[in-house]
Design brief:
The chain is of the alpha+beta class and 685 residues long. The protein is built from 13 helices and 39 strands. Strands 32-33-35-34-36-37-38-39 form an eight-stranded mixed β-sheet, sandwiched between helices.
């Protein structure tokens, strides 16, 4: 290595120095080029203003989080770009213009303290709801500062007055009672995992120094994270701790009063949860117990205490099939609600325990080509009430209130933010290289049928993340209104067909993600929806890796690519920020047998100076402490050195989402659609 941080094998290693003057000067110089090329027109500023108006308008739904009689909401608009944390009652919320109690004005706080605060969440103490643990980040980073807030006086309780407070770190903190918390944070050398998350969980008593907190659980340095928590259900109070050995496997223990711990002996890759007498287990791989085999994707239930005593007579509440997967579930006071996906379209069910077993019924109709989710379940204080949120590609979100066995009423409905007249949604299936049929949705104007036109396809394909229909005013304004076609893909690696849709593309089988996406690209052309030189692709984070592979392996399929906050250097990803936590998804590049398959697709190692690549826009954020900005920086520099058409923009704030406030979000969205307009419609970038 030379003095300026360069090596023979990686001359751009110096770009991994996140805040070095040299790296930031490089980023700013590239930003100026992008701003001059794409952000200087009236069309850009007009779209940016429209998107910002949409993000700032008070006609949007203020989505609440229910805590008994209170509905909490975090709200950003033009007057409050950093946001307000506030609450109201259900009766007040149901009004057209509810009155809110403002608890924290983040803009005022940031100005007072001279900090670039970005809201990261609040943990309200229940049932009293007079205290909260507030998480704030600088510029949108994952690392956060935690401070105790007195809701009654609307002031922060300082450490010198006995308040709980944590300095900036990737911390976990949870209430036990008004004077005690479980905490995992940076306690000093050796207290974090290799991934940068807490390795030790402690019990911290009010009025005592953090250094005197008592350790209740420890993991290994190679784990992803350790945490502890408390179930305060009256009559069923339980202390518990979890050790995530990798991104998809966790051991969960009950912590006994005598200091001992009891392992909940279910598969480590399963998701277990409990409510009162019942233990739920959602399987991610087949499980044989008590001479009975249960399939991956099933949801099982058993009496919790009987299971701890050795019983294994589970009842299957959900059984997957080749078209249907479990998407989510949650308890009301007396019922369990299930949300399933049938070919990526939502179905709702209610399951009720009774003397003769569990009874399953349809909860209600969900509109086609839309996503309906259940929210604001509060089994401890909310009875059997719940809310439904439903949204489609061209249908703005509607928020409804209901209860099991009761009527459903509309609470709020968002206005339309773009002209969707004549736009229709269709679902198609493409045959991947191994014969698997891969679903995708197409949004286009009816008059586009039979005429190939500009299209943009988006993808993710990882970590069992399911992508379902949702309204996007920005895509409507920036692309559909300009005559473009929008495509959402449901490639393997996601969870649209259950856990096996994900595991089919892990590690050595990662190539299936890229084969699925490229097969859809070919299918779009074969159906006459678009042509390859009119086809764009966009993805972020793991989806940014997908974009990098499309550029280097399938460049002939695309006319332009946008690659956001990406992973690209898969030789070093596990050494950068949270990268070590993703080894279970991609593999370990330090193991020769795993680098063998990773090396075949890692974009940074597979660029070709002699290939013809489509124009690519790489975007990232300096403050992203999850996916290192060095990935995008180094790829841009390498492509540039090889003479490929590359554009690069770095948000100096923003975090992993790429934007710290609505104005930055509007800019980022406008930049993407302007880039695609120039490259796919006007052909001049």
């Amino acid at each position: 290595m030379t003095g300026d941080g360069e090596t023979v094998t990686d001359p751009y290693l110096w770009l991994e120095e996140v805040t070095s003057d040299r790296a930031l000067d490089w980023a700013r110089a590239h930003n100026e080029v992008v701003l001059a090329r794409f952000a200087a027109s009236e069309r850009f500023s007009g779209l940016e203003a429209r998107i910002l108006d949409m993000l700032d308008t008070d006609t949007r739904i203020a989505y609440p989080g229910r805590r008994g009689p209170w509905l909490y909401n975090y709200w950003r608009d033009g007057e409050h770009p950093r946001g307000l944390w506030r609450r109201t009652t259900f009766a007040e919320y149901a009004k057209d213009e509810p009155a809110w109690q403002v608890l924290i004005d983040l803009d005022a706080l940031a100005e007072l303290e001279g900090e670039n605060w970005v809201w990261s969440g609040a943990a309200v103490l229940r049932p009293e709801q007079h205290r909260a643990l507030i998480s704030l980040s600088r510029g949108g980073a994952d690392a956060k500062v935690v401070r105790e807030f007195d809701i009654e006086t609307r002031t922060f309780r300082e450490p010198e007055d006995g308040g709980f407070a944590l300095p900036e770190a990737k911390s976990e903190i949870r209430w036990i009672d008004a004077d005690t918390v479980y905490v995992g944070t940076d306690f000093g050398p050796g207290s974090l995992t290799d991934s940068g998350y807490p390795r030790i969980a402690k019990r911290w008593q009010r009025g005592t120094p953090l250094a005197e907190a008592v350790t209740v659980f420890e993991g290994e340095a190679g784990d992803v994270a350790v945490s502890a928590g408390y179930d305060r259900t009256p009559g069923y109070e339980r202390h518990f701790a979890g050790r995530a050995t990798d991104f998809f496997n966790e051991e969960v223990f009950l912590l006994e009063d005598d200091g001992s711990r009891r392992l909940i002996e279910v598969p480590s890759d399963a998701s277990e949860s409990w409510y009162k007498d019942w233990l739920l287990v959602r399987l991610k791989s087949p499980w044989e117990i008590g001479a009975v085999s249960y399939p991956a994707g099933a949801l099982l239930v058993i009496d919790f205490e009987r299971f701890l005593s050795g019983a294994s007579d589970f009842e299957m509440l959900f059984t997957p099939d080749e078209h249907t997967a479990l998407h989510g579930y949650g308890w009301t006071e007396n019922h369990l609600l299930l949300i399933t996906l049938q070919d990526v379209q939502t179905k709702l069910h209610v399951v009720t325990p009774g003397p003769d077993g569990w009874v399953r019924e349809v909860l209600g109709d969900a509109p086609p080509m839309a996503t309906t989710s259940v929210m604001n379940l509060d089994p401890l204080e909310g009875g059997d009430e719940f809310m439904l949120s439903t949204s489609g590609f061209t249908s703005p979100t509607t928020l409804l209130t209901s209860s099991v066995g009761g009527a459903t009423e509309i609470l709020k409905k968002e206005p339309e933010f773009f002209d969707a007249a004549g736009v229709e949604t269709e679902q198609f299936f493409a045959r991947s290289d191994d014969g698997t049929m891969i679903p995708y949705f197409v949004l286009r104007h009816r008059d586009r049928r039979g005429t190939p036109g500009p299209a943009v396809m988006s993808g993710y394909g990882g970590f069992e993340v399911s992508r379902t229909p949702a309204y996007s005013g920005a895509a409507g304004m920036g692309w559909l209104e300009r005559g473009g076609t929008w495509v959402m893909t449901n490639i393997r690696g996601g969870g649209e067909y259950g856990p096996e849709w994900h595991t089919a593309a892990q590690k050595a089988n990662r190539h299936r993600v890229y084969e699925d996406f490229s097969s859809i690209a070919r299918d779009l052309v074969a159906r006459g929806i678009t042509t390859h030189d009119q086809l764009g692709a966009v993805g972020g984070s793991n989806g940014g890796l997908l974009m990098g592979v499309m550029l280097t392996r399938y460049p002939e399929l695309f006319g332009a690519i946008v690659c956001q906050v990406p992973l690209l250097d898969m030789k070093r990803y596990h050494l950068l920020l949270a990268g070590a936590s993703w080894i279970a998804e991609y593999g370990d590049p330090d193991k020769p047998e795993e680098w063998e398959y990773i090396s075949k697709y890692s974009p940074y190692q597979n660029t070709d100076p002699d290939a013809k690549y489509p124009p690519i826009l790489l975007t990232t954020s300096t403050r992203d402490d999850r996916v290192h900005p060095g990935h995008a920086r180094k790829m841009a520099a390498l492509l540039e050195s090889q003479g490929h058409p590359v554009w690069y923009h770095e948000n100096i704030e923003g975090g992993h989402g790429g934007a710290a406030d609505n104005k930055q979000s509007a800019f980022q969205a406008s930049l993407i659609y302007e880039f695609f307009t120039r490259t796919l419609i006007e052909k001049d970038a």
